[in-house]
Amino acid sequence: MELYLYTALFSPLVGSLIAGLFGASRKTSFTGLLTSGLLLTSFISSVILLTYVMAGHTVHVEMMTWIATGDLYIPFGFVVDQVSVTMMMVVTTVSTVVHIYSIGYMSHDKGFNRFFSYLSAFVFSMMVLVMSDNFLGLFIGWEGVGLCSWLLIGFWYHKESATWAANEAFIMNRIADLAMLIGIFMIYWNLGSLQYDVVFAHISILPMPVITWIGIFLFIGAMGKSAQFPLHTWLADAMEGPTPVSALIHAATMVTAGVYLVVRANPIYSEIPDVGNAIAALGAFVAMFAATMALVNRDMKRIIAYSTLSQLGYMFVAAGLGAYWVALFHLMAHAFFKALLFLGAGNVMHAMHDELDPFKMGGLKTSMKWTWILMTLASVALAGIYPLAGFFSKDLILEVAFVEQHYILYSVLLITAGMTAFYSFRLVALIFHGDKRHLEHGIHPHEAYTFMLYAMAPLAILAVISGMVFKTPYYLMVTELLPAVQYHIHNHTTFWIMTIGTQLFVILAIAYAYKKYAKAVKVDKKVESGFFYQLLYNQYYIPKIYDEVFSKPYLQLSKLAWKEIDLKIVDAIVDGIANTIYRTGEKTHTMQNGNLSSMLRWMVIGLVVLLVLAVAFTAGYNAVNLQAM
Amino acid sequence: MLEPITVSLASLNVTTMAPMLIAIVGALTILSIDLFKDGLHKSLYVMVALLFLLLDLGAVVDFGTIFLRNGTVLGMFNMMLIDGLAILSQIIIVVASMLFIPLALTSKRFHEYNYPEYFALFLFMIAGFQFMVATDNLIMIFIGLETASLALYTLIALHNRSKSFEAAVKYFTMGALAAGFFAFGSMVLYAITGSVEINQIALSLAKDEYANIGYVLLGITFLLAAFGFKLSMVPFHTWTPDVYEGSSAALAGYMSIVPKVAGFVVAMRLFEFLVHSGVVWLQVILYIIVVVTMTASNIWALVQSDVKRMLAYSSISHAGFVMAAILIGSTQSNTGLFLYWALFSFTNLGAFTMLWVNRQKNLIAGQSSDHPYEKFSGMIRTMPMAAVVMALFMLSLAGVPPFALFWGKMYMIGAAVSSGYTVLALIMALNSAIAAYYYLKLIVFMFMKEPMAAYGENYLLNASLSLKTIIGIAAVATIFAVIAVNPLLKVITLFVYNSGY
Amino acid sequence: MELTLNHYLILSTILFCIGLIGVMRRKNLLMLFFATEILLNAVNVGMAAISHYRGDYTGQMFAFFIIAIAASEVAVGLGLLVVWYKRTGKIDLDQMTSMRG
Amino acid sequence: MQEHILSILIFFPALAAMLGFVVHKDGAKAYGITVAGIEFFLSLWLWHIYDPMVSGMQFMESAPLVSAFGINYLVGIDGISLFIIILATFFTLIGILSLTETRRVKDMIITLLFLEMTMVGVFAALDAIVFYVFWELSLVPMLYIIGAWGGPLRIYASVKFFLYTFTGSLIMLVGMLFMAYFYYQATGQWSFSILEWYRLILPANFQMWLFAAFFMGFAIKVPMFPFHTWLPYAHGQAPTIGSVILAAILLKMGTYAFVRFSLPLFPDAAVAFMFPIAILAIIMIIYAAMVAYAQEDIKQVVAYSSISHMGVIILGTFAMNVEGISGSVFLMIAHGVVSGALFLLVGVIYDRRHTKLMSEFGGLASVMPRYATIFGIMMMASVGLPLTINFVGEFLSLLGFYKQSHSYTLVAGTAIIVGAIYMLSAYKKAFFGPVTKEENKHLKDVNRTELLGLIPLVVIAIWLGVYPKPVLEPINNSVEAIVQLMHDKAQTPEAQKRIPNLATTGTMNSVSEAH
Questions:
Q1: Range of B480's domain?
Q2: Alpha-carbon gap, residue D213 to D182, rounded angstroms
Q3: What pLDDT, on the 0 to 100 scale, is given for residue B2?
Q4: Local structure of A34: helix, strand or coil
Q5: Can you give the pLDDT at residue A619?
């Protein structure tokens, strides 16, 4: 099995390196095909590993020592267990799809080879992240995906907005990474190891505050990657990257790394339910917070990004409440339909010549039938309509909140579910229904390459069936490792009321969205100029606040530090000392005026001064002696 | 009725005067040669002087072996005192003189070397310095000092430029004043103790427990002023830059070494017993003088525009640095003094000889002194070897290891640290840092600036084989000093320790 | 009134001070030389007096040497002065400032 | 030859430099490459014959120098110095290989070879005075390199560099002499041997003063805030090769000296000064990073980034445990490789455009993709991305210090944030965006000569990031010895608490293996 493990792990790297060799050369489809092929290999290996794990085994290998000094020993160790194999499946599936899709999507881009190199490198990092058997190995992947995210968001580096967004993403993640490092430090100095098995086996012996702090710091790390409030702004801006990147990195895989971390570290979080509750509360807040911003946004990709953010909130609610398997399950399901949604959006963008405002689209269902179907499917899944994936995963989280008697969370999530349905279908309606507003802009849309649609098909299938079909086997498998808690509402009546009620609520929201946006778009000036609309539209002014409170002052402070402190104080003091000495010389060397008379006088003055001192000393000496007598 | 004086010749121990007598005989020989035939080439006199100096050195070294066997030798009614200090300083004096005298063999003609009297005076001067260090009798010191000084004034004047005369007059006048100080100081000490021999004075003072402290300080003050002049301590230093500038570079280099070492030995004899006897005043004053001399001259050296003048100030600073040894007064520090000065003599003579080599007969337009910094700019392009050697001397003077002076500085600072003068050690160290600036300035000009066309033809004008040899010796000594330090230290420690210092 | 050692010493000191003042004030090179001679001779007075008071001859010996040295100093000094005068035609100290700084 | 390998390593370049005077200037560079190549292979051979399992000094050589004053020519290496020596020889080779200077190449080569002698000498010296000799002597060639081949302010920069460091080291010299005097008082013998000094246990109050004296010398060299202002000038004005060697090797002298002198000699003082120094280190990290962010000149960005990284090294050094010190020593090497490479890279663009202002560039990624890639890799290494060389060092340094203080480490850890800020924004300014300047449109990508220098650095930066063991293991063994020594010497309860005792905890394995 080790062979499959290494194959699954390293084939993306091989692909990336080979594609990277052609990075600066002209486009060769070869790189796209090669990397996709290698990812398929990785996928197949993962499937084999999955069957192996489903049979009840796990694979744990230690490739080689990485860092060893003092008592610290960190190997490159990889583990394929129930949790990581789930993640591997998600990652390899979505990334294979995205790779194939990208061959079409990026076919006209100059940086084709480079793109595939980066994309495969990302997959490799993500695999390291999920497969590592220790925290620092996870951190390698953690930072690796950050790097690839930076590369890919800033892929069109000639665009100022893209490079800015790339840097923002990287730096914001770094803030969280610091917390994560601190968490790792704490683990090491308290337990002497960073291996998962050792840490989890001994975590309970630590005093409560220590565990709490470890949990908090690790979670802050997770917040960065998963773009939780207040580190969320980068995710929306990250949409500057090519759309397949958004699908893979900023929807399906990388952003869920935070959830994965919490799930992986469940023995830690199980010890500290209070922190778990806080996580859940933050998750619920983010779920709603992001959904509200999605309600009014006018940028197709950003809407989906906020939706992702919102769904991540859901996952954190589940994870925070201790329903780790539920969180992971929603993670998986979400990966499929959200990636699908993004890829569909990519088709639309292509068709619309990179136009992102859905208000300038409309009526695309005629020219882009398949895309319409796929995106609608994905939206339905996202909204959580039975029997699609979202129903099984998302509604389960609602149930978890309910069963755990967090009714506030439950209500928030329920309302958010309605919003989710609304903004998803608002988007679908605006894009595919109604007037062909894009004609005004002289755009004649066309459907994407067929093979791109085929590539999306597996995701569509998964979006439909993954909930219904996978739930039981997944549960059986993953609870080998994660706490097996069934979240059943024991009262049947309540269960049915809730399920049907939720479904109805969601469907109503969908209907409202269709009603409002499917025919003609009426712009309600009054609403739009209202405070709430503006607040939401401007993302609660948070980016602006960050800019004013952090970015600009930091730059100004930096300039101050350089021009005022460094040059005018620190350096000036040093130069000042030197100059003072020099100037003293310039001022005083005139005593050497060359005149013999004054030279003689200096001698006599010297003598007289010495004499005076001698007299003074003698007087003092005698005075002391007299006293002594 | 006068009693017949009966003194056995053996008890006189006339041989104690042998080294000085050799120098005097040498001088007389040169004068007699000139009597028989005048107009002989200077190389003859150089060689004759060198020969006599060699004999002189031989005699001194011979005394060294005697000293190691039998200890201190007295002679001539206890006027002569041949102890370790005397021997060490005489060696430095004679060796430095031997390095100096070939510098007369320049390729350009200079006025003074045409006179055999120049060489005769030179030898008289050496005899004077030797007398000065080989006695602890104030009269003898006075005679030696004045013999040497009067000869030196003349040597300076013989350079025959108006600046030289000015320098000679200034030096002479101030020297006369210092002589007055010395005489007066001696008189005061004589009045208190009734003796003019330093060890007698010390004994006498110790006996009545410095009862007349006020008068003692009065006497010391005058002697301090006199030696402050000789050793160019601030504020008695004012003659130094002018005299160095006025005299030829070679003589300036010589002056920075030999008169100083003679002065140091006398100062050691005079002041150290006082420092050890707990005359706090002297400790404080010496401390101040050392610090002020080091620092002030360094600061003035910073702003000089002429290399020779800069080196003059730098010599003052080095003297101040070494004066710390007398303040500290331990065997280690006194050893350090001689070590420092031995190493310094090579480096400094080398540096001044480099100036001497580049001496031009006539100044070009706009040139106000012989050796402005600009003259050296871009030397690495025009004469790489010369530039490297000059840089070597500068680095050594700055105390950059492993060159000669570093070892001296290190040992001196070590001595200060060992005797508890930590702050002084820090001041000494920091002064080396300030000093580094002006030495660097020359390096900057030589290595980092473009050559100036105007000075193009004025380099190495004065070079001759013998000058180059001297520079070579100095350079080798400077670079490989590290090898010499250990034997030097051992010998010097032996001599100094056995002399009771 | 009997002259004690102190009187001689005070005389010597006064002479010395006169010499010092002369050294400081005089701008004429020749006068300067005179002043230095006064300095040395002030010491001579003191030396001779102490020698007599102490009853040993060292002081007188010193005095003789000082006289001898003063004489040779005059010789050298005057020589320098003459050359200087020949070159510049002046013996004023304030003219002698070509080197400074 | 094996017994004298260190002497050969030290003096071979100097000898070659002397002979180099004879070589005609056309062949100077080839001569330099040959000599540096031989020297580099000698140092690799040294690594080969070095026994990584031995924690003490190896290849010791001793010869009396000034035995009357206890000064001996005493050299030897352990795991800490070994790699810095290799780094020095390596960078001399790389530097000469990628030398693009055309003015007075021969002088440059000779100077570099002398510099190489002093660099190897500093790290091999086990006698304080010998150490000091090489330490000071290294200033001279650097002075010449900056002053003769530098930019418009070169004289100011070089003199400032020289005087500043010279002043600091003189204070350090006083400290050394004091130390020797202590030894003399304790044993009746003069000695400047560091190993002999290790055996002294000094009273705590004297440790403070001596620590302070040594600190002045080291801190200026590192350079630590607020003694750092010579560095931006030196880097800004120095020619590429000067900056490369300055950043890669010369700065390491300071941090190396902390490990070699300050910690084992004055464990109590080191612990007492731990937090003040940590504060300085944190200021270095954050403040220098901020200043770097404000720079307009890309070379200055790299220069200030050096200060920032040196802060992390200092922090790791003063962690007083094996993890931290090993990490800081490793980071010295890492920073050498990375900053050296970055300065080389800046040199590449400077050769083409004769400007280093970021505003003059923009969009270089599309004009010079290979250059942008290599720069990007090195930038990421500088930012401390895992699997690059810097990460290992930075992680261990911070990890080590975390044991001493949680909050300080949290603040110091912002290094990874602020580092990303200035580096990414500099990269963005220079490489991203549209190509706005006409001159930039036809810039040539890196050529073969430049690649010759850069590729090995990239390879090392990644290789040691992925597999640091060959370097980290010998370092670890030597550091363990030092930490144990410190623990054994510690007198104050504070120090005994802060410095771990490996004999009871960590090295149980090696102890049992020994039996």
A1: 277-359+370-501
A2: 14
A3: 65
A4: helix
A5: 87
> 3-state class of A193 per DSSP?
coil
Half-sphere exposure of A220 (CA within 13 A, CB side): 17
Count the Cβ atoms, other than its own, within 10 Å of residue A607.
24
Chains A–B, number of C-beta pairs less than 8 Å apart? 86
Name A62's bridge partners.
Answer: A77
C99 touches chain A (CB under 8 A): yes
CA distance B434 to chain D (A): 8
pLDDT of residue B156: 93
CA distance A426 to A542: 24
Size of interface B-D (CB pairs under 8 A): 97
pLDDT 10s digits, A342-399: 999 998 888 888 888 888 887 888 888 888 899 999 999 998 888 888 888 888 888 8
Mean pLDDT of chain C: 89
Domain boundaries, chain C: 5-93
Stated length of chain C: 101
Render pLDDT for D32-87 as a digit per residue (tens, 0 to 9).
999 999 999 999 999 999 998 888 899 999 999 998 899 999 999 999 999 999 99
Q: How many beta carbons lie within 10 A of that of residue D102, not counting itself?
A: 7
pTM: 0.94
Asked if residues A558 and D294 have their Cβ atoms less than 8 Å apart, the reply is yes
Q: Which domain holds residue D401?
A: 274-515
- B170: amino acid identity, one letter: K
Residue at D283 is within a domain: yes
B37 against D10, higher pLDDT: D10
How many residues appear in chain B? Answer: 501
Q: How far is CA B41 from CA B33, B104, B157, in A?
A: 12, 11, 21
Mutate to test the interface with A, among C94, C95, C99 (most CBs of A within 10 A): C94
With respect to residue B232, please indicate whether it lies within any of the assigned structural domains: no
Domain total of chain D: 1
Question: Scanning every residue of chain D, which has its alpha carbon at the shortest distance from the alpha carbon of B378?
Answer: D148
Contact indicator for A81, A58 with CB cutoff of 8 Å: yes
Contact between B347 and B239 (Cβ < 8 Å):
no
- Please give the pLDDT value at position A258: 92
Is D507 part of a structural domain of the chain?
A: yes
Query: Domain for residue D49, yes or no?
Result: no
**B476 in reach of chain D (CB within 8 A):** no
Chain A residue with CA closest to C16: the answer is A604
Report whether A294 contacts A358 (CB < 8 A): no
Which chains lie within 8 Å of chain B at 3 or more CB pairs, if any?
A: A, C, D
Predicted confidence (pLDDT) at residue D294 exceeds the cutoff of 80: yes
- Interface check for D147 against chain B (CB to CB < 8 A): the answer is yes
| B28 part of a folded domain | no
Q: Which of B29, B32, B123, B16 is nearest to B76 (CA)?
A: B16
- Which residues from C are below 8 Å from B372, CB to CB? none
- Residue A562: which of D294, D392, D403 has the nearest Cβ? D294
Report the percent of chain A where pLDDT is more than 70: 99
Q: Looking at the partner chain, which of D68, D158, D178 has a beta carbon nearest the beta carbon of B417?
A: D178
Residue D72 maps to a domain = no
Q: What is the ipTM of this complex?
A: 0.92
User: What does the alpha-carbon distance between residue D368 and residue D379 come to, in Å, rounded to a whole number?
Assistant: 16
Classify D499 as helix, strand or coil: coil
A603/B contact by beta carbon, under 8 A = yes
Q: Is residue B155 part of a domain?
A: no
Compute the distance between CA of residue B54 and CA of residue B77 in angstroms, rounded to an integer: 28
Q: Do chains C and D touch (3 or more CB pairs under 8 A)?
A: no
For chain B, give the longest Cα–Cα distance: 83
How confident is the model over D445-460, as pLDDT tens digits? 888 888 988 999 999 9
Contacts of C20 in chain A (CB under 8 A): 604
Domain total in chain B: 1
The CATH class of C5-93 is mainly alpha
Residue of B79, B172, B192 to mutate, interface with C, max C Cβ within 10 Å: B172
